[in-house]
Amino acid sequence: MEQRKLGTQGLTVSELGLGCMGMTFAYGKGDEGESIATIHRALDLGVNFLDTAEVYGPYTNELLVGKAIRGRREGVVIATKFGFRIGDGGQRGVDGSPANAKRVAEESLKRLGIDVIDLYYQHRRDPAVPIEETVGAMKELVESGKVRYLGLSEVGPETLRRANAVHPISALQSEYSLWERGIEREIIPAIRELGIGLVPYSPLGRGFFTGTVDVNKLDEGDFRKNNPRFSSANASANQTLVAIVERVAQRRGATPAQVAIAWVLTRGSDVVPIPGTKRVRYLEENVGAIDVTLTPEDLAELDTLADKAVGERYTPEMMRMVER
Q1: pLDDT tens-digit profile of 229-287?
Q2: How many CA atoms lie within 13 A of 126 on its CB side?
Q3: How far, in Å, CA of 247 to CA of 64, rounded?
Q4: pTM of the predicted model over 0.85
C-alpha cells in the first residue's frame, strides 16, 4: 500500500482509507464483530487511515472505532469531525462555535480512547460563525497537542482561503466520484493552489457503482431510501451508468467497485478516497482497486458518467449545508 501526502504540514496516509460511518449509522443495522474485524483487516492490508465522526450514531461510531484500535494505535491515522448541534433524536443543525469545536474534541478523545486526534475536521460550515473563529479554536487544539492536523468538509474556495490563512488546512473532505464531480470547477483548483489534500467520500456513489444495490430492498434506517438518486425512477435511469462501469471492469478483469475507486485514485497523488464498508469481503475487494490500471480509453468512457447522472445527491435540506 503506497502512501500519499495530505497538505503541506506532514500528514501522510495510505493511498486508500476506510470510511467507518456505515458500521453504525445511515446504512441499516450493523454487526459490531464484523465491523471490528473489517477495521482489523484494513490495518493488516496497510489501510491506516480511518474516518469517523461525532454525529455518526451519534457517538456510537467513535466508540466502535476506539474499541477496534485498542492495542493497535501505533501507525493508525484517526480522522474525526465536529460541527453539528446534537440533541434528543440526533443532529439538530450546525454548530461551528469555538466552544463546540473544543468540547467535541475532548469528548471524541475519550470515546476513541486516544491522546491526540490525527485529523480533525469541521463537518459542515456554520454560516452563523465566521470561519476564522472556528479555525482559530481548532488551531488552539493543535497548539495544546490535542489535534495534529486540521480539515474541513464540503466548503467552497472562499472558505478554504480564509480558513487556511488562520492555520494550514491539510485536507478537504467532499463527495467525489464518477457521478459527482462538482468540485472540479473551482474547489480542486483552490485546494491545489493552497496545498490542501482531497479526501473523497462516497467514491462508490454510496454503493451504487458496485452494481449490487436494489433500491427496493434497502434496510430500514438506510438513508438512501430518501436520497433523490436512489428513488426507483432515478435509480432505474442511472443503471445506464453502472453498465458502462461494468463494461470497463470486464475489460480490466476487475469488479465495478474496483473500477470506480481506481478512477478516483487517478485524479491526483494528493487524493485519498475513503470507501466505506462494514464487511471484510467488500473491504478486500475495495483494496484490490489499487492494482487496477485504467487506460486512456477506459478513462474516456468513465469521464462521461457525471453528465448522465439523474437526481440530486442529497435532499434540499442537506444540500443547503454544502458550499460550492
Answers
A1: 999 999 999 999 999 999 999 999 999 999 999 999 999 999 999 999 999 999 999 99
A2: 23
A3: 37
A4: yes
Superfamily of domain 3-207+267-290: NADP-dependent oxidoreductase domain (3.20.20.100)
DSSP state of 304: T
- Give the gyration radius of the chain's Cα atoms: 18
Helix (H, G, I), strand (E, B) or coil at 148: strand
Instruction: Output the pLDDT for position 90.
Output: 75
Listed in sequence order, the DSSP H helices in 171-295 are 187-194, 232-252, 256-265, 280-287
Q: How far is it, in rounded angstroms, from Cα 71 to Cα 74?
A: 8
The rounded distance, in Å, linking the Cα atoms of 184 and 178 is 12
Distances (CA, A) of 263 to 59, 150, 284: 32, 26, 17
User: Phi-psi bin for 310: left (phi > 0), alpha (psi -120 to 50), beta?
Assistant: beta
CA distances from residue 91 to 56, 57, 88, 222, 266 in whole angstroms, order as listed: 9, 9, 8, 16, 35
Residue 246 grid cell: 461494468
What whole-number distance in Å separates Cα of residue 48 and Cα of residue 56?
A: 20
Written in H, E and C, the secondary structure of 2-53 is CEEEECCCCEEEECCCEECHHHCCCECCCCHHHHHHHHHHHHHCCCCEEECC
Active site residue 56: yes
188's grid cell = 480542486
CB 98 within 8 A of CB 134: yes
DSSP code for 219 = P
Is the sign of the CA dihedral 207, 210, 215, 221 positive or negative? negative
pLDDT in tens, 76-116: 999 999 999 998 777 789 999 999 999 999 999 999 999 99
**Catalytic pick among 56, 121, 201, 282:** 56
- Give the DSSP H or E segment for 94: strand 90-94
- CA dist 43 and 32 (Å) reads 17
Q: Scanning the structure block, which residue is given the C-alpha cell 437526481? A: 311
Q: What is the mean pLDDT of the chain?
A: 97
